[in-house]
Every structure is written in structure tokens, then in C-alpha cells.
Amino acid sequence: MTVPRLQLFVGGRWEEGAGAPITSHNPWDWSEIGTLRGASEQDGERAIAHAEAAQPAWGAALPTERAAVLRRIGDGIEANADRISALQTMDTGKTRAETRALALSAAGTFRYFAALAETAEDAITPRRGPATTFSVHEPIGVTAAITPWNSPIASDAQKVAPALAAGNAVLLKPASWAPLTALLLAEIANEAGLPAGLLSVLPGAGREIGSLLVNHPAIGRVAFTGGTSTGRQLAAQAAAKLMPVSLELGGKSPVAVFADADMDRAIAGVLFGIFSSSGQSCIAGSRLFVQAKIYEAFRDRLVVATKKLVVGDPNAPATRVGPLIHPDHHADVTAHLERARADGGRVLCGGPGDGRLFYPTIVEGLDNNAALCREEVFGPILSLLPFDDEADLIAKGNDNEYGLAAGIWTRDFDRAWRVAGAWQAGTIWINTYKQFSASTPFGADGASGQGREKGREGLRVWQRQKGIYADLTGATIPWGVA
Ligand code: NAD
User: Fold this and answer.
1) C-alpha span between 194 and 198 (Å, rounded)
2) How far apart are CA 104 and CA 211, in angstroms?
3) How far is the CA of 344 from the centre of ligand 1 (A)?
């Protein structure tokens, strides 16, 4: 496994940062992977200057020329999928199956936005006077992407690919707990022939380099994925300079199992929904509502299945649940479980392991308003609650400030469709969970964020729309002097 250069990628070159050192550890055995110097504000300023110099030519390039580069980046990601997967597993502790899937999805994202770049159309709009009217889209200019540690290559691609496709330069700031995959993306983009300066990768402290990107007058848009409290700060800063910002934040996603559901599929889907990525997933299905008449039978089968999940080395093919990213995060997840116990929750299985592993945990007996059912844990803890009927389920599911995702297991499609319409969530899965497509919008509302990524509109949010009126008729203008 070759680790990418442990440096910043600025203006097409690898450089030593001048910010605080960042040491990457392998969450599985806490071995040290390496240390790099993070980006300082001066490094950020330099990257912005390179981006400003490179963007006009890229923005003026034919869409088909930009698409060709993006396709090559997609090909490079696919060709390096095993390397990306090994690196990301080493940096995040996610299983190899998960990190490989993330790498391939990132390749697909670049190809999707390549296709959109060269097929998106401007419009001649219906005239309401002598002038011919146009709606055209232009790049914003220099933009930024700030990403969290849990799914680096996929969340990076979701922002970098449309930003570049739309004709922008983009500065990417990955999270300090997992900065390596973003550096590998820089290496791949560089080898694919992306002109220097269009993508700089700046690991570093959120308060320092992250804040610089948000507040800098040259940055015209920021796409952020991370925690809700950080997102709120960013939104306030963006508002001060009237800059568009998209926010993909935390979640507390409800999942419903109706009595008529296919039980085997529902159990597998519920387990995957909450325990994959060791629960460190914004869309984790962490509040499970089971219809009262099957509650006990379903619960007992779910607990048996949960105890069978292989927990351990994320590189071992049989492993389903790897370690948590960091001992500090392990302590946070443990504190959530202790609070749940203090609130009267009964722990049916799981619990903290050795400071790295956290065993898949199910808690019952709590009210939907208990802290465990209200707050994002970002770990492998599922709260189990009964519901009576559809109305009760809809009310309980919506009784939460988040609005990211939800799952519904039933054979009654009319009912599934009604609940899907009534639940406030950016993504709803019916008889499935955690499925993604680059062509389907992803995003959220409420405390889970604002704006959407992916899909056709996922390109447009990285552009400015302009109306143009051109009078080609030579008609007399009434104010003319005879
Ligand atoms: P975080 O908010 O701590 O950090 C996210 C990124 O923001 C990091 O790169 C960080 O360095 C940077 N940052 C921190 N403070 C900043 C500041 N003041 N200004 C600018 N940048 C700053 O989140 P995290 O702990 O890395 O990730 C976990 C969170 O991300 C969870 O809440 C999870 O739900 C959320 N998440 C959401 C989605 C989604 O699509 N909705 C996806 C993945 C993760």
C-alpha cells in the first residue's frame, strides 16, 4: 500500500504546510501512518491565488473538454479502487467492502458529472417583448468543499466533481482524522491532466483553514458536510458575506418495520442501516420503530442476528463492523450509552469494547424524547421503540429536529408511499436502505442541513444563472428622439 505524499497539494504541486501537524493513525491497531503539516492561512491564501489564476481558462473551456478530464479522473479512481480502499480502511477503520464501494461510487460520480457537463443545456426562454431572451449558466469562480472523516472519497467526489464540471476551481479541506484519501484524489486528478490550481487539497484545522475558506472574499460558494453545530457556524459566516452554502449535517433517521414486512429482509436491512460503518454514518437508521403486534418477536430475532455480526479487523473479509475512528469518539459514543442507561434504557446487546471496537448495541425501553432517541450518536447504537399504527408512527418519526433519511419496511406499497410523503426527510428508502445513485438528489432539511447534491440540479448549484435580453428586431424604442 503506497501512502500518498504527506503534504498539501497546492497549485498543482506538493508542498509542506505551515500549519499544525496532523498525525494519522490506523483506528484498528492505532499504529501511526504518518504525520503531515496542515495548511496555515498563508497556505490557503496561496491556494486561492492559484485557483483564481487557473479558473478563467477552465471556465471558458468547452464543456466537452472539461468532461474529458473528469472522465479520466473517474477512470483513474476506478483503476486505483483497491489502493483507495486499502488507504481509506487504514485511515478510517471502515471495512474493505465499504471503502471499495465508496471508491467505485466516487468514480461513477465523476463520470456522471462529466456527462452532465456536456449535456446540460441553456435555454432560449419564451419572449414577452421584442427582445429574444436567454437563460444561461456560468461558473461561480473559486469555490470550496469541506468534508468530514467518515466517507472521504465519496463525500469529496460529491462536491469536487460537480464544482469542476461547472467550470469552477475548488479547494478541498478534508477532516484531520482522515486526510489521506483526499490527497490520493489530488494525485489521481493531477495524473488525469487536471490543470494546476483547479483542485488544491488542504488538510488542516477547521477553525483555521476551514474558516479562511468560508470567510475569504474570493470564495463564491462552500459545500459543507459535517456536524450540525459546525454547519450552523458556517451558515452564519456565509450569511455575513451573502454567499451560497450547502450543508449536509447530522441525522437521527427513523426506520419503520410494519407487521406485514418481509422479516428476513427487514432484519438484514435494519442491521446494515445502523451498523455498517460502525454506525458512523449521517444516514444511520438509528431509531427503529417496530409495529407493536410483532415487536417482541422482531426484537428477539434482531438481537440474535446482531450478536452474530463479525466485529473486528476491517481488513478481514468476514468483518461487518470495524473499529471506531478515534479513541475520543469512542469515549463520546460510550457516554451516549451511559446516558441511555441512566435514562432507564435496557441494553439488549453490545456495548463498548476495548477503546477501539464498539459492539453493535440495541437499547429498548426509552421514550422517543430520551436523549438517545433525539441526539445523533454517530456510533453503533440502535434505539428500539414500538408503534401502534400509521398515524402514531408518522408523528413519532417526525418528532425530531433532524430530517436526513428514513426507512420503511412493509409489503403494502400504498402505505409505504403515504409514510414516505408524510415523513420529513431528504431521502426515504422503501424495503431497502443506504442505497445511492449519483443521479438522485441527496440532502436534507431541518437540523440536517439545506441544499441538495447529486442529480441534474447538483451541477446547477455550482453555477450562476444569468438572464440575457437581446433585441434582434431593430424595433423602435419609444424613448427615442425623432
Ligand atoms: P465536523 O463538523 O467536526 O467537521 C467537518 C469538517 O468541518 C472537517 O473538515 C472540519 O475540520 C471542518 N470544520 C470544523 N470546524 C470548522 C469551522 N469552524 N469552519 C470551517 N470548517 C470547520 O464533523 P465530523 O466530526 O468531521 O463529521 C461527523 C459529522 O458529519 C456528523 O455529525 C455526521 O452526521 C456529519 N455527516 C453528514 C453527512 C451528510 O451528508 N448529511 C455525511 C457525513 C457526515
Assistant:
1) 7
2) 31
3) 31
Look up residue 36 and give its three cell numbers: 503531515
Same domain, 312 and 214: no
Give residue-wise pLDDT tens across range 404-417.
999 999 999 999 99
Give the pocket of ligand 1 (CB within 6 Å): 146-150, 173, 175-176, 206-207, 210-211, 214, 225-227, 230, 233-234, 248-251, 282, 376, 378, 404, 444, 448-449
Q: 152 is in which domain, residue-wise?
A: 8-249+448-468
Nearest to 161 by CA among 461, 465, 405: 461
Question: Which residue among 146, 158, 376, 448 is best mutated to probe the pocket of ligand 1, counting the most ligand atoms within 8 A of its Cβ?
Answer: 146
* SS3 state of residue 28: coil
Distance of alpha carbon 370 from the chain centroid? 27
pTM above 0.90, yes or no: yes
Judgement on whether residues 269 and 400 belong to the same structural domain of the protein: yes
Residue 162: name the closest of 445, 465, 439, 450 by CA.
439
At 322-334, the pLDDT tens digits run 999 999 999 999 9
